[in-house]
């Protein structure tokens, strides 16, 4: 069983959103091509789904501004602009994404006291989502991951997939993803590669 995991392809992370990833919307047609290619038995997607008072928001830290370093529950935390607040258009999937084909949506980042980059668990690793259990129940043996942003939520999701789904082959689809910082993207790719994650292009999948 082969699964495709789409990470946070939401308005908030695309141009015009509250925390836009440069060129983030350019991955939507690639993601749709992957979805519609017929290579995958299961399509899953993660969705940042923050309460309005989430502690990772700079607005919750008087005197701070977005992208400052702060703390959250005693841990270092990048303070973000308010983004992907539950029930707002910013949290919706990109309107051009083929959401009809998605079998399972994993919302994350709902606990205001901890951030959640990974689709599999919170950043403090104390609470897990239902995603690993769902993929195990589907008997997934291969997992391809792409989305936004490479140097944050995509990277942490891919690394957690390796550690939480032993025996599953994990691949990162480079051109179906975009990152925030070019140096951070390069470092993220090397970290994923060092963890045994294959770095692939969508053309390799679409050609199969």
UniProtKB/TrEMBL annotation:
SUPFAM superfamilies: Isochorismatase-like hydrolases. CDD domains: nicotinamidase. Residues 3-201 form the Isochorismatase-like domain. Keywords: Hydrolase, Metal-binding, Pyridine nucleotide biosynthesis. One of its GO terms (molecular function) is nicotinamidase activity. The keyword Hydrolase applies. Pfam families: Isochorismatase. Its EC number is 3.5.1.19. Pathway: Cofactor biosynthesis; nicotinate biosynthesis; nicotinate from nicotinamide: step 1/1. The keyword Hydrolase applies. It is an enzyme of class 3 (hydrolase). It comes from the Bacteria. Belongs to the isochorismatase family. This is nicotinamidase. It comes from Rhizobium oryzicola.
